[in-house]
Design brief:
136 residues, alpha+beta, 3 helices, 8 strands
Length: 136
């Protein structure tokens, strides 16, 4: 797994809670990563979560536990590596891009390992960049 990149911690942001992050990551991964194999995904969702549920969020009201979550291709320099080229024949599962790490675990790890008041960040896994950040 690549290096972790965390967003800056901001003041006056809405709270982010561990249980809600778990729900948001599970909801996102089950709907956008499980059973999907792609060389170049580009999936973005905004999700609002509680400790017991999660759903897509299209509102504009500033709320607690609203997350922007994405899986995108790695940058152009990394795409040049043979294992990430579309014609290389390598297909990676979005739910488990590398052994021992699945989508939900990757997103949860980002939130846990970034020491930025729950703001989140991103990390590269295989040929994909996984990102989870608070919206507000």
């Amino acid at each position: 797994m690549g290096s972790l990149s965390c967003v800056d911690s901001k003041k006056d942001v809405k709270p982010s809670h561990h249980e809600a992050v778990d729900q948001a990551a599970r909801f996102f991964c089950e709907g956008n990563a499980k059973g999907i194999s792609q060389n170049y995904p580009d999936v973005h969702k905004t999700i609002v979560a509680t400790e017991s549920s999660a759903e897509e969020y299209s509102g504009t009201e500033s709320k607690d536990d609203v997350y922007d979550i994405a899986i995108t291709p790695v940058d152009q320099e990394q795409l040049a590596q043979d294992t990430c080229l579309a014609n290389s024949g390598v297909t990676m599962e979005l739910d488990q891009p590398i052994p021992d790490y699945n989508c939900e675990g990757i997103l949860t790890r980002i939130w846990q390992d970034c020491n930025n008041n729950g703001r989140g960040g991103n990390i590269t896994a295989g040929c994909f960049v996984y990102s989870i950040t608070t919206k507000y």
